Amino acid sequence: MTTANKTPIPLSVQVRLAVDQYLAQLDGHQTTDLLALVLTEVEKPLLEATFQYSGYNQTKTAQILGISRSTLRKKLDQYGLS
């Protein structure tokens, strides 16, 4: 997503907008474990996008994400992406 002048919208701004929208949809209802929810919701598409970007190369994906290949493999298995 970009603005009319092609300036990228920072990821932090996009996350803030999504969280604001989620909280507004609660309409006063309580929520718990929001941090865990957000991290889980973000982690799978992050893995999918980076894995595809790297040409499905685990070594490159791990380097891009700044994690070890073994951690990447565990996460790929966790989300059924391996």
TrEMBL record:
Q: Which domain of life is it from?
A: Bacteria
Q: Which GO terms describe its molecular function?
A: sequence-specific DNA binding
Q: Which InterPro entries match?
A: Fis_DNA-bd, Homeodomain-like_sf, HTH_Fis, Trans_regulatory_Fis
Q: Give every DNA binding HTH domain span.
A: 39-79
Output one GO BP term. regulation of DNA-templated transcription
Q: Which family does it belong to?
A: Belongs to the transcriptional regulatory Fis family.
Protein name as it appears in the record: Putative Fis-like DNA-binding protein
Q: Which SUPFAM superfamilies match?
A: Homeodomain-like
Q: Which Pfam families does the entry link to?
A: HTH_8 (PF02954)
Q: Which organism is it from?
A: Methyloprofundus sedimenti
UniProt keyword terms in alphabetical order:
DNA-binding
